[in-house]
Specification:
By secondary structure, this protein is mainly β. Helices cover 0% and strands 62% of the residues. A hairpin with a 2-residue loop joins strand 10 and strand 11.
Length: 122
């Protein structure tokens, strides 16, 4: 069984910073990409940032220039450094990854973490 476990959420004031972590554990062959999503109350889940193993990154317009995603390939861990936080960044942040679980046949399983709450006070 593959698990993604997030950590690093909490309460911070406007303009502050937080660093989220998401570590994969369990039995799998590889992870080629990892993503961070977030869901605010009464809003749909949205993609915040993504990274592939080669290092290419992508960000939602709302976080460009403030958030940085990075990945430790050896540890199968993804990070989200969040700076200049705003109240509208308040949400539960989820880690997501397509995980290669079998190679004969090639099978990917989409795995979600349990989420970590980020609250930005004004």
């Amino acid at each position: 069984q593959v698990r993604l476990v997030e950590s690093g959420g909490g309460l911070v004031q406007t303009g502050g910073s937080l660093r989220l972590s998401c570590a994969a554990s369990g039995s799998f062959f590889s992870i080629a990409a990892m993503k961070w999503y977030r869901q605010a109350p009464e809003r749909q889940r949205e993609l915040v940032a993504s990274i592939v193993k080669g290092g290419m990154t992508n960000y939602a317009d709302s976080v460009k220039g403030r958030f940085t995603i990075s990945m430790d390939n050896a540890e199968n861990t993804v990070y989200l450094q969040m700076n200049s936080l705003k109240p509208e960044d308040t949400a539960v942040y989820y880690c997501n990854a397509p995980v290669l679980v079998t190679i004969t046949p090639v099978t990917y399983r989409e795995v979600w973490g349990q989420g970590t709450l980020v609250t930005v006070s004004s």
